[in-house]
Amino acid sequence: MATQTQQLVSSEFATDVRAGLTKPGQRELPSKYLYDEVGSELFEAICLLPEYGLTRADTRLLQRYSPEIIARMPLPTHVAELGSGSGKKTRFILEALSKHRRTYYYPIEISPAALAACEKELGQLDFVSLVGYEKPYLEGLRAVTARREPGEHLCVLFLGSTIGNFDRPATDDFLRQVRSVLEPGDSLLLGTDIEKDENVQLLAYDDPVGVTAAFNMNLLARINRELGADFHLRDFRHLALWNSEERRIEMHLQSLRRQRVNIAGAGLLVRLEEGETIWTESSHKYSAQEPAKMAARAGFRQFEQWTDQEWPFAQNLWIVE
Ligand code: AVI
Fold first, then answer.
1. Local structure of 213: helix, strand or coil
2. Is the CB of 240 under 6 A from ligand 1?
3. Does the C-beta of 206 come closer than 6 Å to ligand 1?
4. Which pLDDT belongs to residue 2?
5. Cα 1 to ligand 1 centroid, rounded to whole Å
6. CA dist., res. 315 & res. 161, Å (int)
7. Nearest to residue 314, comparing CAs of 173, 160, 109?
8. d(CA 42, CA 36)
9. CA distance linking residue 29 with residue 160, whole number of Å
């Protein structure tokens, strides 16, 4: 008799795992599945690593420039954050805004663990009302825009260079979709990691302690847990590489031997060759000039950019005119 985990699971996760691992050519798994409870915690640990300067740069800019940033945007009543994570660095923007007026903050997260952490972190701020949405970005954003009264401005935060996890063609499409639900006077604060020395970038995604490796490997462990698969984690290794043509770091999981993996919950038997990889994430990097062009293509205007010198990173303020 089939046990619970051996049964076919009909979920979006099972469908996406099946589609990604049977893809002709390069096998892949969507990076959004890196963020279960364990993965979200590991990502928080990555943000503390000396080699991963991205989060500290993002936070430094918000800490230093939040009053200036909000002075440059039409003062919003509503703030929606796409992929808030734990929300730690958002505190600076919310504190600056709530000095002027009561602010409604909507973290939009697919990870319930991250959303709970964010609610704990920012739920008690004076003059800030928090309503979390456990939804995909655009679905959450549509729900937020439905709440506002005529004349009330919305500011969308998309921090931490999470935009870099989209493929470049999908980026333009996504930003256009964000723009389509916004109105004149609304703003978007977009964080973009700036391209830097190749070795610095590689170390940021392949740290010597192995936290990023654990973050990546946890995806196989998650498939074992949730879809009753029999991945032997010791038969894989974490691989980070710089794709200079696409200007992105790619994370892969490389099979260390020829092997078969049974993913019962997805009704799938996968045969992997020695050396073959499963692509799990892309982190695109940008020039300092690129965001202004991206803004124009998506129907925004870039008003201002603040950059960090210690770890080249940019906060870009876009406005809908
Ligand atoms: C969430 N995102 C912006 C991170 C990044 O840098 O692409 C995720 C990450 N992957 C490995 N380390 C961090």
1. helix
2. no
3. no
4. 40
5. 41
6. 9
7. 160
8. 10
9. 21
* Chain centroid to CA 146: 24
Tokens of 118: 């964010």
Q: Of all protein residues, whose CA lies closest to atom 3 belonging to ligand 1?
A: 162
pLDDT score recorded for residue 5: 46
E strand spans, the chain: 27-28, 78-82, 103-108, 128-130, 154-158, 187-193, 236-243, 248-255, 259-263, 268-272, 277-284, 301-308, 313-319
- Are 94 and 103 spatial neighbours (Cβ–Cβ below 8 Å)? yes
The tokens 């462990």 sit on which residue?
A: 221
Which residues have C-beta within 8 Å of that of residue 176, sequence separation ≥ 6?
A: 297, 298, 299
CA distance 206 to 138: 31
Residues, the chain, total?
Answer: 321
Q: Please list, in sequence order, all residues whose beta carbon lies within 8 angstroms of the beta carbon of residue 298, skipping any fewer than 6 positions away.
A: 172, 175, 176, 178, 179
Kind and range of the H or E run holding 222: helix 211-227
Which residue's alpha carbon is at the smallest distance from atom 4 of ligand 1?
A: 162
What pLDDT is recorded for position 170? 95
Is residue 93 within 8 A of residue 157, CB to CB? The reply is yes
**What pLDDT score does 214 carry?**
98
Q: How far is the centre of ligand 1, averaged over its atoms, from the C-alpha of 242 (Å)?
A: 14
pLDDT averaged over consecutive 10-residue blocks of the chain (321 residues)? 58 96 98 94 96 98 98 96 94 97 96 92 96 96 95 97 96 98 97 98 98 98 98 98 98 98 97 98 98 98 98 98 96
Q: Are the CB atoms for 146 and 172 separated by under 8 Å?
A: no
Distance CA 40, CA 109 (A): 11
Most ligand 1 atoms within 8 A of CB, residue of 31, 137, 165, 313 to mutate: 165
Closest CA to 195 of 55, 53, 313: 313
Residue 213: HSE in the Cβ half-sphere, 13 Å Cα cutoff: 13
Nearest CA to ligand 1 atom 6: 283
What global pTM score does this model have?
0.95
